[in-house]
């Protein structure tokens, strides 16, 4: 019986090496995430085992929030405890693990050039918000959008696409998942978002009580950043809904 596989192609060998390195790091330091086996590393492609299933939906949010919290707690415990959000970390082979601030400063300036921010005043406001969020214990960002999770018929959750990996604060990648679920399927009730945040914090806190640093105000700050950073993808990749985050009234969650 033949084993089904999936091959992803890249433009350069450097991109191949980066994605393979990310896969190996996640397998070692984010063990809660079930990854398809990487079977072949080619000059310009990677081949993985094929996973049958569907992308994540809104009803999966609670389980995924707990999964991310567990993965972020494990990564902090095993590798990211000494990492600083403002400074590139390093993989075992010495290659830099992108920091939180630098790549997003570049992306926000690009959003102004692309017309997704109205003026430099708005840009400076977003840059200040980015700097405000660059505190607390360090997690990783893996672009947790619905397409990057595969839910099997048995209910197993696989995490796919290891192209993007940077440092990020606790809760930042949960906010990316919430934002992209809304863009894909439509608005989420505030109570659902609050429940997902509680599930995330409970999961990460099991690794260390100091890691449950994300309250609703901080989550809203992350969502505001993602609203700008994901703006160019509206109408693409299944993002059929428009969305601007509505902050939770302070003190209500």
Automatic annotation (TrEMBL):
Alphabetical list of Pfam families matching this protein: APH
Organism of this sequence: Streptomyces werraensis
Name of the protein in its database record: Phosphotransferase
Domain Aminoglycoside phosphotransferase: 8-201
